[in-house]
Amino acid sequence: MASKRIARLDILPSATALSTRAKYLLPPCLSHSAPHTRTFHVFREVAPLRKHRRELLLIGDTVGLVPTMGALHAGHLSLARQAAAENSRVFVSIYVNPTQFGVNEDLDSYPKTWDTDTHMLEELDKELSRDDSTLPGKGSFVTITPLGDVLEGRTRPVFMRGVATVCTKLFNIVEPEQVFFGQKDVQQTVVIKRMVQDFHINTKVRIVPTEREPDGLAMSSRNGYLGERRRKIGVVLSQALRAAEAAYRMGKCGRDDILALAWDVTNRMGMEQDALSETERAKFEVDYISLAGPETLDELEEVDASKGAILSGAIKMLPLEATRDDEKLGRGNDEVPVRLIDNIILAPQK
Ligand SMILES: Nc1ncnc2c1ncn2[C@@H]1O[C@H](COP(=O)(O)OP(=O)(O)OP(=O)(O)O)[C@@H](O)[C@H]1O
Ligand SMILES: CC(C)(CO)[C@@H](O)C(=O)[O-]
Ligand code: BAL
Predict the structure, then answer these.
(1) Under which EC number(s) is this enzyme classified (predicted)?
(2) For 221-346, which CATH class?
(3) Disulfide-capable partner of 252 in 169, 180, 247, 263 (CB 3.0 to 4.6 Å)?
(4) Which ligand sits nearest to residue 82's alpha carbon?
(5) How many angstroms does the Cα of residue 157 sit away from the middle of ligand 2?
(6) 73 is catalytic
């Protein structure tokens, strides 16, 4: 029987990136002079990483890869924990991938919290070691159509192409036995699964449930842009999806019967906000609320209860119109619009 090894975290910061020509600005603390302060490896070049990967292969270690864009939170850590539970090594990549952002999206303001990220991974690494201390524009793109064009793809046209491309590179470099993605980005999971299948990529795609705040808001790196006022209203999406899910659970399968309940929630909350003054309200726009097939992402008129469906949505929290001195603002002083996404899987019914 294979002996159990300590799962260790290895981190691939932006530099692993995927193109040896890319330039990266890394904080000085990450210079090669100080790697001994970390309990995990930091790779910024492809070649040493590949070498390390080959060594792991030779000693029979398995690798679970967790691709991220940094600004880590409990959701990311849940993926890393899951990966560690099932693999002897965990690779976490941190790379804010520009090719998945369109020109008017939030690439420039996307949070970059390298020091906190590495600290969190450090703590997680310690925790995992404690758990088992007995043993040690132009270029090439991967396009998955039509899956990448619907839902998020309508608002973020290059998003899924960027994700599929960067993940192909990561998968080729790391050659992980398993890759871990969060349920929160459901379209991404469907695209990646299809890509792995269509390109015969030798890895297993694992999906980890969405971590939520106590009120139901899905954790997301972008939530930090929500000050207390927008944060309170941001929960509208998860509440809307929950209402629609309840209709399905009560036996409704028709699109209108299911989605009407979600729209009731967003319309009601939207009207409540409209009725308030500019210093009190937080306005939002619904981008979409979708009821789609679990593998095709085609919009459904009727859920086939033997297959189930994906209920998903996106809203944009608009910048506050006027702020008050007595309120806690988010990163960017609540001047940055924040797009929130969420979903619920409507499981097949027997
Ligand atoms: N709340 C969550 N629960 C579980 N997994 C999550 C959660 N949030 C993100 N993930 C997963 O973590 C991985 C990296 O995601 P990413 O770095 O984009 O974080 P994010 O919080 O989704 O950020 P963003 O605000 O950009 O959506 C993805 O597989 C994503 O689905
Ligand atoms: C998978 C991913 C790391 C690719 O950049 C990104 O889309 C994310 O963080 O979900
Ligand atoms: N979590 C998905 C990364 C993005 O929104 O670009």
Answers:
(1) 6.3.2.1
(2) alpha beta
(3) 247
(4) 1
(5) 15
(6) no
The CATH number corresponding to 8-208 among 3.30.420.150, 3.10.150.10, 3.40.50.620, 3.40.190.10 equals 3.40.50.620
Q: Is 187 buried (19+), middle (13-18) or exposed (0-12) by CB count in 10 A?
A: buried
This complex has an ipTM of 0.96
User: Is residue 97 in contact with ligand 2, taking CB distance under 6 Å?
Assistant: yes
The domains of the chain are located at: 8-208, 221-346
Q: Which ligand is nearest to the CA of 97?
A: 2
Residue 182 near residue 207, CB atoms below 8 Å: yes
* Cα 132 from chain centre: 28
pTM: 0.81
Tokens of 29: 């603390």
Closest CA to 151 of 265, 258, 255, 299: 299
**Rounded alpha-carbon distances, angstroms, from residue 101 to 21, 51, 268, 271:** 20, 31, 32, 31
- Options 36, 52, 76, 119, the catalytic residue: 76
Per-residue pLDDT of the chain (350 residues; tens, 9 = 90+): 333 344 566 666 544 433 332 222 222 222 222 333 556 788 888 888 888 888 888 777 889 999 999 999 999 999 999 998 899 889 999 999 988 998 888 888 898 898 999 999 988 888 877 654 343 366 789 999 999 999 999 999 899 999 999 999 999 999 999 999 999 999 999 999 999 999 999 999 999 999 999 999 999 999 999 999 999 999 999 999 999 999 999 999 999 999 999 999 999 999 999 999 999 999 999 999 999 999 999 999 999 999 999 999 999 999 999 999 999 999 999 999 999 999 999 999 87
Question: Which atom of ligand 2 is nearest to 159's Cα?
Answer: 7
